[in-house]
Amino acid sequence: MRKSFVLLTAVIILALSFLAWRFSKSPDSAPVVDSSAETGRDGETVEVLFWNVFADDTSTGEFLARASEAFMKENPGVKITVNGQGGYDAIAERLEAAAAAGNLPTMAVIEETFLGRFHPIVAELSRYLPDAVIENYQPGLLASGYIGDGLYAVPFNRSMPVLFYNKTKFEAAGINSPPATWDEFRETAEAMSDRENGVRGAALCWDTDAWIFESVLYSWGGDILDETNKKVVFNDGGKAAETVRFFQEMEENGTLFSPYNHQEDPWITVATEVLQGRACMMLGSNGMYSLYSQWMADAGYELGIAMQPSFGDTPSVATGAGNIVVFGGAREEQKAAAGKFLEFLARDEYAGEYAALTGYLPVTKTAANSEKLRAWLSEKPEYQAVIEQMMYAHRRPFTKNWKNMYGVIVEELEACLSDKRADAAEAMESAAAACQKIMDENPD
Fold this sequence. Notes:
By secondary structure, this protein is an alpha/beta fold. The chain has 18 helices and 14 strands. The chain has two domains: 2-159 and 320-394, Periplasmic binding protein-like II (D-Maltodextrin-Binding Protein, domain 2, 3-Layer(aba) Sandwich), CATH 3.40.190; 161-318 and 399-441, Periplasmic binding protein-like II (D-Maltodextrin-Binding Protein, domain 2), CATH 3.40.190. The chain has a five-stranded mixed β-sheet with strand order 2-1-3-13-6. The two termini are 21 Å apart.
């Protein structure tokens, strides 16, 4: 099954490479875009199709609908149509099918690491965005959009793993601050656990794409790939096994809840334990902060948020969620209009509103100038730590093979938290070898 999947991926990459050749951008010889491109040929309306990862009736879908309407009032020669596509994997599959059929949208939201799959067919964005706009993006979030010196994606709905905790229960236990290190995390989980009444101090879900594991590994001083992006290094020196064993021991001691022996979705299971007060801490995406806060309030608790714990003095955290790309096969006036819409979304007013609305990171340095974000931060001062965490962003794996690789990793991670007999060293050694094989058989 895995060989078939790798072969299918290779076929898709070949198709993408062909399309990249077909729609070659030749940046050195391309003309400079001027304002006349915005109104299209002979004054016709420029139509920009924007595929959003979220459904149209979500907070993000509704925000983009409002923003696109405001943009079109300022730019009557452009029509922006936003379509929700139902998740990162779903949008990636649909984009691959659209690429093969030659009917890609103008622009789309893709998961941060998926640029490794789509970079052959996306446009270099510095041609369509002013330098001042690019320089205003948060450096830790913008980093994953670069390939060499070229900028191919910009941040939109971006997140980092954070520590959520039940502030009400912490205060009742006399614990005044969340743990900053993993040793403190273990000690706090022990102090908050009530084994007789089924309360555990913490809960953990590795995530479907190993994102939480990846970020924890960075905080332990490890990495996924070496600097060449060709060699798998996550278990070098037994580093991955060490991190996994840490959480196995917590589960064995009754201080960590694992969702992997339950039938329901792991994230729903973990969140339910925390929201109902049966677990007191969890790692998750800051993009869920607003929603989790409301759920916790409905359950009679106050939700706290803090930086992900670290192993040493210097934190290191994965970034994640969505970047926006523009496809190179679009007409030049469509790419110019898409660039103007990206510039519009990066205005303080909109970047700030989106962060306050959702809990996703403010993607620009000046988004805090937004009245809505300033007001929101005054009510949620703890969130400032999440913003500061961006300075500790760690580079992500850049390879078209990452999806195949994290599928292998997650399978072993789940086994280690669902079977007490599972050997973490053996599991991580096996995962590393399998991932290296995937990369060797399908080189970037």
